[in-house]
Design brief:
Structural class: alpha/beta
InterPro entries: AKR (IPR020471), Aldo/ket_reductase_CS (IPR018170), NAD(P)_OxRdtase_dom_sf (IPR036812), NADP_OxRdtase_dom (IPR023210)
Number of helices: 10
Strand content: 15-25%
CATH architecture: Alpha-Beta Barrel
Shape: globular
Number of strands: 10
Helix content: 25-40%
Protein name: Diketogulonate reductase-like aldo/keto reductase
Number of domains: 1
GO molecular function, one term: oxidoreductase activity, acting on the CH-OH group of donors, NAD or NADP as acceptor
CATH superfamily: NADP-dependent oxidoreductase domain
Family: Belongs to the aldo/keto reductase family.
Pfam families: Aldo_ket_red
CATH class: Alpha Beta
């Protein structure tokens, strides 16, 4: 399953998704994101995760054009922002995302946040289903959806989400949500897997890293992957991008996995999806 950077998981509709990718949150649209994406692809990455909210879809698209890798070998994800919830609004926003990326299709499109008080995510999902049925998107999913949001969405849907991208790191292991997603064949994907660097001084993680002659970041990424969670660490530096992918030549023991699991505090760096309704 986890042989090298080309290793993939198979989503419930049969589409293959790389286990490891590059996230580009907060990267400037222009040279910063272009060089990061090119560095990632040239070092073997095939999955790039952006979003309309990030404001750098054009730079991602430009980088894709400049690398010598066929489009069909890449897995490109973007996300619908909160101001575009609703059926017609979603269809229009998707076309703008494709235009900015200058692509003919997306591999994965996600609803960025559920916005439960706005309560339009079910209408939004109907538009996602239409785009999926029209083969403009190879897989559709959600981001930051808790169990109650997923239950409500699935209840009236023709297509169950293939992916749920959520905050996930050793201080927020989300086991009940991950269990629900496993039961419904929804692949969990991690954002902020390194908790914005807040875990680098943890004694347990440092001890395990020293044991394997790896960095704490590499240990966390390996823990993600062995937990069955797709992960997309963000870095704009070529050396760090390469380092983050150097996680396929060691394996954490069952005891080491348990040690990391016990670090959970149910502690977020991002907002609680049940309360977040920013538009």
């Amino acid at each position: 399953m986890l042989k090298d950077l080309s290793s993939k998981t198979t989503l419930h509709n049969g589409v293959e998704m790389p286990w490891l990718g590059l996230g580009v949150y907060k990267m400037d649209d222009g040279d910063e994101v272009k060089e990061a994406v090119k560095a990632a692809i040239n070092s073997g990455y095939r999955s790039i995760d952006t979003a309309a909210f990030y404001g750098n879809e054009e730079g991602v698209g430009a980088a894709i054009k400049e690398v010598d890798v066929p489009r069909e070998e890449l897995f490109i994800t973007s996300k619908l922002w909160n101001t575009d919830h609703g059926y017609d609004e979603t269809l229009a926003a998707f076309e703008k995302t494709l235009e900015r990326l200058d692509l003919a299709y997306l591999d994965l499109y996600l609803i960025h946040w559920p916005l439960p008080k706005v309560d339009k995510y079910k209408a939004t999902w109907r538009a996602f289903e239409k785009l999926y049925q029209e083969k403009k998107i190879r897989a559709i999913g959600v981001s930051n959806f808790k169990e109650e949001h997923l239950k409500e969405l699935i209840r009236g849907s023709q297509v169950t989400p293939m992916v749920n991208q959520v905050e996930f790191h050793p201080h927020l292991s989300q086991e009940p949500l991950r269990s629900f997603c496993r039961d419904h064949n929804i692949q969990v994907e991690a954002w902020s897997p390194l908790k914005q660097g807040d875990l680098f001084d943890d004694d347990t993680l440092k001890e395990i890293a020293e044991r394997h002659n790896k960095t704490v970041a590499q240990v966390i990424i390996r823990w993600d992957l062995q937990s069955g969670v797709v992960t997309i660490p963000k870095s704009s530096k070529a050396a760090r991008i390469k380092e983050n992918s150097d996680v396929f030549d060691f394996e954490l023991s069952n005891e080491e996995m348990r040690m990391i699991n016990h670090l959970n505090k149910d502690e977020r760096v991002g907002p609680d999806p049940s309360l977040f309704n920013k538009q």
